[in-house]
Amino acid sequence: EDGEIDVDAAIAVGNFFETMLDHALMQKRLQKEKHQQLIPCLVEILKGTENSTVTEAFAGALSVLALKTADAEQFYNSCSLFKRDVVEVAGTMLLRSSKERDKAAGAAAREALTRLLANLLLHPRFRKHVAKDDIIGGLLSVLAGESDSAVTQANALAALMNGAVQHADTPESVYGAVRSSLVKQGAVSLLLILLGMKGANLGAEVYTRSAGLLARCALDKEGRKKLCEAHAFELLVDVMSAANGPALGHLIRIVAV
Fold first, then answer.
1. Measured between alpha carbons, how far is 248 from 251 in angstroms, rounded to an integer?
2. How far apart are CA 216 and CA 160, in angstroms?
């Protein structure tokens, strides 16, 4: 448990794994049965720490594993070996950090957590775990604040898109629940405000992903109702008139539905 591991040692271990897991040989070794418990150990330390540097290190290591694993099913089973939900762990930590006064102190940790969630949700087995209000609320908190970087915002949007987009290998109940939760927690208004900031301080990647996520919200019945409200539709038209490229395609699809 946290407190029994020296902070400097924990950081060193996390950094070691994050660096070594870039190598295919290390990834293969972790897939062997005798090394399987190493992955849930990383999850346990992430769950137990309150140190932002330790969080960054272990979220980074797990993120590399999620992105580069050759066997997604085994990786999912390994993460769950100690009965932990790694998606919930990361999402809860993100939400908790958003409530702290000085989020800048944990900016790197929040970036690592959002990257971890985005990479986990590349895999079908993990997607069902994101359909929870707290996790989605944690990701939306990244978009609502002003202290997170464009990279962190892009990561959060990627995670939400991975959960909300229709996939052949994901039940409709999963991506439907994600869309419903997004709408319920005010994502439509938030995304319209973000899109209205184009040309101010919103990067191209964040802009395009915001439009894409809004298009998924429009596929939800309540989401369509919100977009049909007078003030929302007027803002949508204004945003669309200034859009171009892939973002414009997303916005046209919103009007179409």
1. 5
2. 10
Interior/surface letters 49-67, b for 16+ CB within 10 angstroms, e for the rest: beebbbbbbbbbbbbbbbb
- Say which residue, 246 or 27, is predicted with more confidence: 246
Q: Is the pLDDT of residue 101 over 60?
A: no
For residue 75, what are its two tokens? 């990786």
- The continuous run of DSSP H or E covering 34 comes out as none
Cβ(158)–Cβ(209) under 8 Å? yes
Per DSSP, the residues of 89-157 read HHHHHHHHHHTSS-GGGGHHHHHHHHHHHHHHTTSHHHHTTT-SHHHHHHHHHHHH-SSS-HHHHHHHH
Q: H helices within the chain, ranges in order?
A: 7-20, 24-30, 38-48, 52-68, 72-79, 86-98, 107-120, 124-127, 133-144, 150-164, 172-184, 187-195, 204-217, 221-227, 230-242, 245-256
Rounded-to-integer distance, Cα 190 and Cα 123, Å: 27
In whole angstroms, how large is the CA radius of gyration of the chain?
19
C-beta of residue 141 within 8 angstroms of C-beta of residue 98: yes
Q: Are 227 and 233 in contact (CB under 8 A)?
A: yes
Tokens 């005798």 sit on residue: 34
**Which residues on adjacent β-strands are paired with residue 198?**
202
Question: The tokens of 91 are what?
Answer: 């999402």
67 CB contacts (<8 Å, ≥6 apart)? 119, 122
The 10s digit of each residue's pLDDT in 175-186 is 999 999 999 999
Which tens digits make up the pLDDT trace of 30-47? 666 666 788 898 899 899
d(CA 106, CA 111): 9
| CA distances to 64, 128, 245 from 170, in Å | 23, 8, 28
